[in-house]
Amino acid sequence: MKTLDSRTALALVAGCLASAQVGKVPPALGAIRDQLGVGLIHAGWIATAINAAAAMLGVLVGLALGRLGAQRGLLAGLLLLGLGSALGAAAADGLMLIAARAFEGAGFVLVVVAAPSLLATAAADDPRRRRRLLTLWSCYMPTGMGVMMAVAPYILQHHGWRGLWTANALAIGTCVLVALFLKLGAGPGSGPRPVPVTMFSRARLAQPAPWLMGVCFGCYAAIWFMIATWLPSFAVEHMGYTPERATWLTALAVGGNILGNLTTDFWLARGVPRWALLAGVSIMMGAFGWFVFSAGYDPVLRSVAAVFVCSAGGVLPAATMGGIPLVARTPADIAIANGILMQCSNVGTFIGVPAIAALATALGGWDGGRWLIPVLAGIGVLAAWTFRRVALQPASDLAKAPGSSAGILVEQAN
Q1: Are the beta carbons of 215 and 200 closer than 8 angstroms?
Q2: Domain that holds residue 53
Q3: What whole-number distance in Å separates Cα of residue 88 and Cα of residue 22?
Q4: pLDDT tens across 144-181, in order?
Q5: Are 81 and 54 in contact (CB under 8 A)?
Q6: Global pTM?
Q7: What CATH number is given to the structural domain containing 142?
Q8: Which has the closest alpha carbon to 140: 233, 22, 259, 17?
Q9: Residue 373: which residues within 8 A CB-CB, separation 6 or more?
Q10: Measured between alpha carbons, how far is 244 from 80 in angstroms, rounded to an integer?
Q11: Which of 378, 55, 285, 316 has the alpha carbon at shortest distance from 45?
């Protein structure tokens, strides 16, 4: 059986385009700050405004897609992404750009919740194919961000940051046309069968495993995006890089995350528990992330640390995304759990990036702000340890909980 068909391939491409809207900002922040006259903290909000909608709407979108279907949600998300990028290209000031980024955020959350639900549903009868598709999906963020950061310097040099926004709007528009050609969102194959509202009970939202994985993902995302967002400007201002070399360094760090994504199955196949992967990545990111923003060390060593922490950290998103089908009984449950995961990860991103900028500003430099990184890593370790206790809970106890997936979490621990 083929791993990809036209619709699953489109879902993967849509995810990469969604993440590209995140990746276009870091290399353009310097130009945006110069042209629109915004400060460091304001720039942080521009970078993370796309995550605001996902931080607020992830669970609600998951619930809605359980009724409306993943394919319709994916198409709607692409339309909002394109609209937001086009509006951003015409923004006259920082507030208008943040508003445009909010449109992109609404589209982003629709795409990143709908696409994995669509992939998991399409391969529901073939666990091996489903695992391959979700492993590929876990690469969407570093792939889209890495490609965008690689091409952004050329576009910025010749067309400015507004040209970069316009180019993204055109790319998304092309993807929308392809989706319409494939009749995405039309007909009976547009997603899982509608689920009665009464089925969305408190018990379905109160399952601990998705929330604990979500906390781990949120702490990871906060640290990862701190590095990915601020490394281009930090490398220029404190490590002696040119803007172009700083962008390439960040693209290398972001692109290396794909290697981490693809090695997750290697570790799981060798008996490493899922909770141990979550805890180990959190510890590694806390230590190396702190080192990246530490003054007084060789810039080359800090550059290597940035590439390593962003690359090896890719194990965590793949481990969490791959764990979702193991705690979900139906396609609707997958959408809800994906919504929880995306909401938690975007809360981390939305708060983390401007928070470290605010701390650095208030404490007189990055040596003060960097301490936020090990604090977040510690929260991730605690969530992973708690997840271990849930994962090892006997199946007979899980079966007593309404809406539980008895026995599934035991498999998830291995």
Answers
A1: no
A2: 6-412
A3: 13
A4: 887 887 888 889 888 888 999 999 999 999 999 988 88
A5: no
A6: 0.73
A7: 1.20.1250.20
A8: 17
A9: 223, 226, 285, 286, 289, 290, 293, 356
A10: 31
A11: 55
